[in-house]
Every structure is written in C-alpha cells, then in structure tokens.
C-alpha cells in the first residue's frame, strides 16, 4: 500500500499503477503521486551528490598518477563523474527540485550521498580498486535503474552506465596488472582490496529487511531489484575474478553455496551507519571541499545571471 496525499484519489493511483504495470515510462509532465515524486527527488539528488562528491577521493591522485597514460585516464574519469552529476541534477529538476535546494541540502548535511566516498584513498592502488569495485557495484545498481519507470532517470542511467563500464574496466586492468607485478605491487593491490571490499558491499544499501524505501520503490517500478539481490550479483561477478587475479578476499566466511551463489560473512552495519551519519570517515572534509568549491564558484554564477539578465533586456528592446 503506497502513501496517498490528501488531494489524490484512489482512481488516480489506480490509473498510475496500471501505467507502471504496463511498463510505460512516466514523463515529467505526467500526473504522478506526490510520494512517487518525493522518493525520486530524494534518490536522484542523492545519486547526483554521490557522483560529485565521488570526484574527491580520486581527484586527489591526479597530480600523483604514476604515468602520463594513467593520469590522462584518471582526468577523463573524474570529468565523467562531474558530467554524471549534471545529468542527474537535471533529471531531478524535471521533478520540480531546484539546483539551489539540492545543493543547500548537500552542503547543510541534510541530504545523504554514498557512504563509499567517506573512505580515504591511501595509495595509488586505491584508485584502481575504486574503479574495479566501486564502479563495479555502481554499474550493477545502475543497470537495474536504467529500466526504472521514470523516463529521464532511466535515460540518464543508460548513458552513465556506458561510461561507468570504461571506469570499471580501467580499474580492473590496473589491479590485475599490479596483482601480477612485483611483491610490493601485489601487496599494494591486496591492501587496497582489504580496505575497499566491505565498504563496496555496504554501498549497495542495508539488507532488505532493514531497507524502509525498497517496498514503495519496487511497487512503482523504480527499483527492479532489492539491495540484497544487487549485492549478490556484485559478489557473484567479482569474487571469482578477484580470486583469479591472485588476491585474497578479506572475508573468512565467504563461500559458494550449492546454487553457485557466493555467500558473504556478516557485514558491519554499525560502521555503515556511522559513516553515513558522518561520525566516522571523511564526511566533514568532503563537505568542506564542496563548500569551498561552491564559494569559489560564486562569481561564475553571478556572471551567468548578469549575462542572462542582459540577454533578456536586449530581447525585450
Ligand atoms: N550511503 C548512504 N546512504 C545510504 C546508502 C549508502 N551507500 N545506502 C542506503 N542509504 C540510505 C538511504 O538513502 C536511506 O536513507 P533516506 O531514506 O534518508 O534517504 C536509508 O539508507 C535506508 O536505505 P534504503 O531504504 O535501502 O534506501 P533506498 O531504497 O533508496 O536504497 C540505494 C539505497 C540502493 C543506494 C538507492 O537509493 C539507489 O539505488 N540510489 C541511486 C544510486 C546511487 O545513489 N548510487 C550511489 C553511488 S553512485 C557512484 O558510485 C558514483
């Protein structure tokens, strides 16, 4: 049973649900329940914030990339993430959210962004491991969202996923190379896996039993798979590949069951919530960097507004 706003009728909801059941895309001007709109704004804006904050842990390494080729790839990747943020902010704007409201929510700490970006990048291998694991997890989730019922979000996801696929491949290529390299390189790759494995599993969200939003999102065709289903797909693809690369997954309980699924040990959800709430990890530093970028960009916003006002004035003349 989904929430109904006092101004909405059961007939409106029934007609809307029938559209979802027929697999139709909902477009910006279409009637939609207020709660559908609210859920999408929450999710898409948090996703946009994640893309933009996600530039920070990797961006730190642009000046320290070991070769020109790696530096060029990393610059392109970080730039792609900024583009993903743009598509997603635009998708949320089609639902009536303004850029100013969304940025205020991020900078005031009201809106969430992905827990994964509150973890530090200690070595260059972390950059590769982010590509392989974090982008790998993001793709699993976002391939599912490419089929979601809201047209602008689903179309943004198609484009984002194709770019993320390159990010994933470059990370995997880098780590596989280090895992077969010198003892120091192998150790660096292993240490990075030890740091990123559990956070990558956590970033796909709490277990289904502890996920308050999944029911409504699944009912409306926004989430086509649950958090645990996406996590299982992620582990099934990545566990054998990491082992094949000669790395050790830091989970003594990890095993394959009779159906072929890789089963993980207990996840430390206390750590997850502490990181989400900013009690652990780099939340303060990440928001500080975003606030600084926002303040530094004030003159650009002012110049654009002045330019737009002049254009309008000329058009009126
Ligand atoms: N980091 C921070 N908060 C999280 C995370 C996470 N990794 N996972 C779940 N949460 C939050 C949810 O936002 C929700 O809080 P809210 O109601 O205050 O917004 C709460 O935990 C409970 O979780 P769920 O009910 O499971 O939330 P939901 O159904 O929205 O599922 C998920 C979470 C899977 C992240 C979903 O929102 C989603 O698919 N979002 C779009 C994709 C996205 O944002 N990806 C981020 C990474 S993108 C990248 O790597 C560049």
UniProtKB/TrEMBL annotation:
Coiled coil: none annotated. GO terms for cellular component: cytosol. GO terms for biological process: phenylacetate catabolic process. GO terms for molecular function: phenylacetyl-CoA 1,2-epoxidase activity. Pfam families: PaaA_PaaC (PF05138). It comes from the Bacteria. This is Phenylacetate-CoA oxygenase subunit PaaA. It comes from Deinococcus phoenicis. The gene is paaA.
